[in-house]
UniProtKB/TrEMBL annotation:
One Gene Ontology biological process: Mo-molybdopterin cofactor biosynthetic process
Extent of Pro residues compositional bias: 57-69
Protein keywords: Magnesium, Metal-binding, Molybdenum, Molybdenum cofactor biosynthesis, Transferase
Organism from which the protein derives: Geodermatophilus pulveris
Role noted for this protein: Catalyzes the insertion of molybdate into adenylated molybdopterin with the concomitant release of AMP.
PANTHER family per the UniProt record, alphabetical: GEPHYRIN, MOLYBDOPTERIN BIOSYNTHESIS PROTEIN
Domain MoaB/Mog: residue ranges: 247-385
Catalytic activity: adenylyl-molybdopterin + molybdate = Mo-molybdopterin + AMP + H(+)
SUPFAM superfamilies assigned: MoeA C-terminal domain-like, MoeA N-terminal region -like, Molybdenum cofactor biosynthesis proteins
Protein name, UniProt field: Molybdopterin molybdenumtransferase
Pfam families from the UniProt entry: MoCF_biosynth (PF00994), MoeA_C (PF03454), MoeA_N (PF03453)
InterPro entries linked to this entry: MoaB/Mog-like_dom_sf, MoaB/Mog_dom, MoeA-like, MoeA_C_domain_IV, MoeA_C_domain_IV_sf, MoeA_linker/N, MoeA_linker/N_sf
Similarity-based family: Belongs to the MoeA family.
Amino acid sequence: MTGNGGDGSVPGQRDTTALDLRRGTPVRDVPAPSPAPAAAVPTPGGHETTAIDRGQVPPPPAAAVPAPPRGVEQHLDEILSAVPLPDPIELAVLDAQGLLCAEEVVSQRALPAFDQAALDGYAVRALDVEGATPAEPARLSVVGETVAGLSGPSSIGPGMAHAVAAGAMLPAGADVVVPGVWTDGGTVEVAVHAGPEPGSYVRRAGDDVAPGTTAVQVGTPIGPAQISLLAAVGRDRVQVRPRPRVAVLSAGSELVEISTDPGPGQVVDVNSYALAAAARDAGAEAYRWGILPAERRRLSEVLESQLLRSDLLLIAGTLATEGDLVQEVLAELGPMQFSQVTMHPGPVQAFGRLGRDSVPVICVPGEPVAALVAFEVFVRPAIRVMLGKRQLFRRTVQAIAAEQLLSPLGYRQYLHGQVMRHPDGGYVVEPLGDGGEAMLARMARANCLIVVDEDVTEVAAGGLVTVMPLLLGG
């Protein structure tokens, strides 16, 4: 039995190039020397025997060539194409605020339900006030008054007027409402100083929404105006795209809770708080689980339980080393791919679909600044896909760089900065730090991310850069 390939050749005889992971330098396999001929070995009895040729011992196999770094778009596309769109749910209209309507809401009522006055004034016949002027007003008899609310039917004839309040039922025979300010406000007889066109200041039944027509369309964001319309057509519940349930977990033996004073080498777990807040701002129903346990069985139980109750798992931590327990347990739950992504900060990213329901799991770096940058680039768009949003990404603007920007070649750089309007128009942006420092206080002062493309290594002061404003809820 040999350790050769299927063709009987020695692995060392293949001419391949590999990467020495320890040094980062390419190494080339060297062909193995030809085996020496068998030598005659004397035996104790004086007879010569031929030694068995065991073959040349092959050199150790070269290290596997690591996968090339992935582009930001490639990693993002993989995530967006895999995240599911949760099934619609029915909610009370107030609970549906901020979500997308998932049904075509057809009104069974007319809005308004009856002909009504659009403002306070007098309901009259347009023919009776035609040509009226302050010098020669039209004088009409006031035969009644109607205010908004339950009222019986009424009517007017030629030369009559009916005082009405905004929203009040229009009397039969009237085809226009004269604003009160165009009259002398009389209670028995009114002098009309101007005659509006027929139909002016009148809301006809069904003018807003006719029975059988769509009041709210699928995909409409439900805000105060939509809630008003839903209530008007008699809907107290509506089907919507639900907020995705996002569980946020932190991995790392160095982590402690915020209530604990960290010892030497320990750091407070800020990622689970920051990422849960970011997920809520993006529209998710996010909850913080906290620091993952270090014991394998307990860790597996936690991850499995979170997969059962969540639509998306978000894990922050440095998980790219061999033998990492979290990485091993994740691999037991399904295919999880860790990749080098051409971005800075935080090039190590991971994505997979785990558990019986193939729940999306996104891993972001453990460094807090890099974790929030990765959230903006990968996680926030995924949450918006699950919400059914059409606009997945924050809007960007072009801004003038207030100072020189440097960026590593081949990596998309994300710098925190402050963007403001330029007095002469447009925007100007000032970076906070040089991108090599991960400072939470600087990030807290930032209102934007400056994006420098992979093929750009320097932006001169005064040059244009792409800026992504970080608006809350935007």
